[in-house]
Amino acid sequence: MRMMKRNKKKNKKETKHSSLVVRWVSVVALTIMVSFIVFSFIIYSFIGQQSMGQQKETSNEIVSKLNSTLNRIPTQLEISNVVPALTPSTREVLKGNPPISSDQPNRSAFNDDLLSSLTNRDLNVVVYNLRKEDVFDNGSAIPPFKKIKGDHQVVHVFKHRREELITYQKVRSARSGKVTGYIVVANKMTYYNGLMKNLLKWMARISVAAIIFFTLVAFIIVRDIVKPIKEMSHVALEVNDDPNSTIRIRDFHRHDELQELAVSFNQMLDRMQRYIDQQKEFVGDVSHELRTPVAVIEGHLSMLKRWGKDDPQILDESIDASLQEAKRMQHLIQEMLDLTRAEQINVQYPYAVTKVSEVLKRVVGDMSLVHKDFTIRLDMDDLPADTEIQIYQGHLEQLLVILIDNGVKYSTDRKEMNVSAGLSQDEVHIIVQDFGEGISKEEQGKIFNRFYRVDKARTREKGGNGLGLSIAQKLVTSYHGNISVDSVEGQGSQFIMVFPALSESQAKKLRQREENEQASKEQKE
């Protein structure tokens, strides 16, 4: 008991550590986190590229304007020729005067594009001559001179965790094409740096909030999914501990695969329970039915052992009686095995297909030869010749033999039987009619029970065990059919079997599956 309790506790701990909820939520959270990181990185990079393009365009624009103005100077750039080359407004600014003079009342400084660029706080502009001397700047922090390859170069610089864009441009004389000086524009990109910083901050906040939110949503969804699985596991453990338990999985009121799994699981448990009940019934029925013949054989053998073996007549009678009881036991055991097999048809013959007309002709012909004193008529006018049903051929033959033998067994003076078949509304109807004793209304509902006999004394005389009709019912229902009886006492009975008819495509699919299964078995062998 202690070991069992320890094992249960151990199993619980293992189940707790390997919880599906934890696993699935972790996977979902990780997936969401990676997705948001990738998404944020893409958005951040895209916005950064767009903003950086605008900053480069701004720097290139002022460099281009300065270059287009300064390249008109034919000689080396100096203060004396650079300042006059600039706009009048620029000269006023350099002198420390307002950009708008009194003699130009209608001129706006901001109409001068170059002046607007020079007054931009983000832009530090400096013009160097060939001696690397500062001949012009806009008064802010002067970017250092750097020797460059080619006429134009853009350099990214990081200062105090902020990115700056420095553009270098050689000034060439428009007349001679010689280098006369250098333009250096440092763009501090205040707006760009602020934008990217805020964007990163908000993306981090949104990502964290989204990950937490979606993780909670995932937890709720996963818990809702795992809850039925836990209940199924609980039911499975209960049934494993007690195979006779009637506990089943409740209806989850879901319209998904879990509901289908629960229904299938319950059907499986019901089927297992039926097998257990069948096993119990089989053992109980066999022990009950074999008790009488065993007792008879034992009685005769005891009598022979005591004194009967010395009397030839008693010896012969005892041997004959024992042989008769042994044959009855053999017949009983065979019928019990047939009954057990009939309850497992969908496992043994799941894809069997049979043409009804062929089996009817063969069985009626054979039974007419066996019972020559009977007239057995066959009517298949309403049955198309190619009609097929899902049933193993041998079992359809067995059904017809059971019903015809039953009619023969309970016949009276009229030695006739009618076997008819027809197709109606995608259903095959097979009727076996006799003109014997008939069955009362009270007994019609019992004749399919195991070991039930309408006339027990007469049935025993003819070797019946009361299992034939029970086997027939199990066979028919196993193939999704239905069997019923319509009888009038003194006039006879008719047994009606109804099976779903197969379409041509359905029959073809079943045959294909049977061939595939057979091929698979041959490969394994």
UniProtKB/TrEMBL annotation:
The HAMP domain, residue ranges: 223-277
Catalysed transformations (reactions): ATP + protein L-histidine = ADP + protein N-phospho-L-histidine
Residue ranges of the TM segments: 21-47, 202-222
InterPro entries tied to this protein: ArlS_N, HAMP_dom, HATPase_C_sf, HATPase_dom, His_kinase_dom, HisK_dim/P_dom, HisK_dim/P_sf, HssS/ArlS-like
GO cellular component, one term: membrane
Keyword Phosphoprotein carried by entry: yes
Enzyme class, broadest EC rank: transferase
Name of the protein in question: Signal transduction histidine-protein kinase ArlS
Claim: Transferase is one of the keywords in the record: yes
Principal location listed in the UniProt entry: membrane
Enzyme Commission number, as recorded: 2.7.13.3
Span of domain Histidine kinase: 285-503
Compartment list: Membrane
One Gene Ontology molecular-function label: phosphorelay sensor kinase activity
Keywords on record: Kinase, Membrane, Phosphoprotein, Transferase, Transmembrane, Transmembrane helix, Two-component regulatory system
Record-linked Pfam families: ArlS_N (PF18719), HAMP (PF00672), HATPase_c (PF02518), HisKA (PF00512)
Annotated membrane topology: Multi-pass membrane protein
